[in-house]
């Protein structure tokens, strides 16, 4: 399996989650982790290649204010629609990870949850 985890992070929490998900995926194969602007600058970074088995995309979903269930769902729907236009298909529902605040970071246990979610995603890819 080859996986790519792409994220946008404003205060570091999403970056930490992306790295934990990647660690959960690693036993199943090669995993690349990129911040979205770094990926865009990389050679071929704007192309989804055929050797890619899994693309994980994540970012903050606060929508110019405190995050609410509907703003998180709207952001996931927009990302899903765009990825489907590129020929991708979802193998799992979007997942939200809790943040206490931008200065305090992630809620307790969220990195472990992200790691486990990554491991579960790898299992879904292997079964397909």
Description:
It contains four helices and five strands, in the order E-H-E-H-E-H-E-E-H. The protein has 128 residues and is α/β, with parallel strands linked by helices. The strands form two sheets. It has a three-stranded parallel sheet with strand order 2-1-3. A hairpin with a 3-residue loop joins strand 4 and strand 5 (105-106).
Note the gap between the termini.
11 Å
- Principal-axes geometry comes out as globular
Number of separate helices: 4
Strand content: 15-25%
* Low-confidence blocks of residues: none
The radius of gyration over CA amounts to: 14 Å
Strand order within the widest sheet?
A: 2-1-3
Largest sheet: 3 strands, parallel
Number of strands: 5
What percent of residues adopt helix (DSSP H or I)? 40-55%
Structural class: alpha/beta
Order of secondary-structure elements? EHEHEHEEH
Task: Write down the overall mean pLDDT.
Answer: 86
Which SSEs are present, and which pair or pack?
Layout: E1 2-7, H1 13-25, E2 30-35, H2 36-41, E3 54-58, H3 69-85, E4 99-101, E5 105-106, H4 110-127
Parallel strand pairs: 1-2, 1-3
Antiparallel strand pairs: 4-5
Helix pairs in contact: 1-4
């Amino acid at each position: 399996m080859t996986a790519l985890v792409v994220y946008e992070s404003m205060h570091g929490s999403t970056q930490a989650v992306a790295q934990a998900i990647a660690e959960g995926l690693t036993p199943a194969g090669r995993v690349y982790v990129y911040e979205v602007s770094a990926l865009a600058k990389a050679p071929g970074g704007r192309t989804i290649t055929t050797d890619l088995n899994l693309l994980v995309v994540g970012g903050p979903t606060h929508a110019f204010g405190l995050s609410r269930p509907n703003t998180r769902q709207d952001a996931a729907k927009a990302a899903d629609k765009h990825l489907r236009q590129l020929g991708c298909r979802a193998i799992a529902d979007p997942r939200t990870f809790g943040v206490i605040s931008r200065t305090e970071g992630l809620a307790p246990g969220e990195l472990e949850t992200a790691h486990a979610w990554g491991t579960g995603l790898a299992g879904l890819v292997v079964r397909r």
